[in-house]
Specification:
Length: 247
Amino acid sequence: MTIHLSRCSFGYRRRDLVLDDLTLDLPSGCVVLLGPNGAGKSTLLALLASALRPRAGSVTLGDLDTRRRRDLKRYRRQVGWLPQQVTPVPGLRVREQAAYAGWLKGLSRRDAWDRSLEAIERVGLRELAERSAAQLSGGQLRRLGIAQTLVHSARVVLMDEPTAGLDPAQRKVFRSLLDDLKDQASFVVSTHQTEDLADSYDSVVLLDQGHLLFQGSTVSFLDLAPGEVAQERRAEAAYAGLVEEEV
Ligand SMILES: Nc1ncnc2c1ncn2[C@@H]1O[C@H](COP(=O)(O)OP(=O)(O)OP(=O)(O)O)[C@@H](O)[C@H]1O
């Protein structure tokens, strides 16, 4: 099941539209969300997370429509969101923070606590379960953020630049984590890093200035690069071709 955006518009200020009449079907699997700075990626993820409400249009998952109050809770339970900054909750240990996130999504205290252990285990934080969340490194905090989405068994996990600021070794850890979790949920991941596209993602969404420039399989995206471009540079060349065409 996928999230469907239909004719969505959104602006932070009355006159400016950051997303303009956007229609998009997010397929299951791993989707990478690309676009220049200010394209609207974080805004789109916040709309998909139902943290922001579109000015016009709809966001639906199956028969759940975020415009309907009675659907919102169920929708939010199915959709996990990892914003750019994962904030440690003051006074909470790693496992407690994962459990707290599940409780906020509507699990009972007991369920949230029980599930939190498996969630932190899946992201490799089992040994740090009793450590204060405030003492985690940036990469560990992001892993805790992912665990928070796993506690409530989100079917779609939205991640906003999860690898920004991570060193190459940590980025590799993140990629293999994503690989491990693919059987559990679908992922929509925004990033500026195009080098690992072919290995990690099934499809690509490219936004620029709130408009959709491309949506399709990773293979068809890479095919947009000129034939002579080497394999490891094809994503970058395809991206540049589409964005420059737009300027
Ligand atoms: N809270 C806000 N109030 C007003 N304008 C905002 C706010 N957040 C974002 N914007 C504006 O909305 C537009 C889209 O921003 P957004 O953060 O969604 O882009 P992005 O593609 O995620 O960018 P980046 O790659 O730099 O993170 C930008 O013009 C930005 O200045």
